[in-house]
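[[Local backbone shapes]]
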Amino acid sequence: MRVRCGLLGVFLLLLPLAASAGGVRYVMRVDGLACSFCAYGVEKKLKAIEGVERVDVDLDRGLVVVDAREGLVLTEEAMRSLMRDAGFTFRGMRLVPVQAGQETPP
């Protein structure tokens, strides 16, 4: 029982540190995204990159939102190449800091 309580205590001490950790969010404008298969193809390629934690594709607005661990750098050149290889046209991206718990893409 003591071990269990000790582990719980350590977890509770570390929880605020995890909650305060942020990351980076890349919001990319991509042309040619027309269906869920398009979204899946782009999502699969992006999730193969170590450090990518979440990918959301908004087909209506032509946006791909990537949440990544802090320190991961996605360059426009690399994203242009990735999107071209997937059959889409990369138009640009912006970087947005992310606070822990922020779920919805801007």
User: Anything to note?
Assistant: The beta strands are 23-31, 52-58, 63-69, 89-98. The two ends are 45 Å apart (CA to CA).
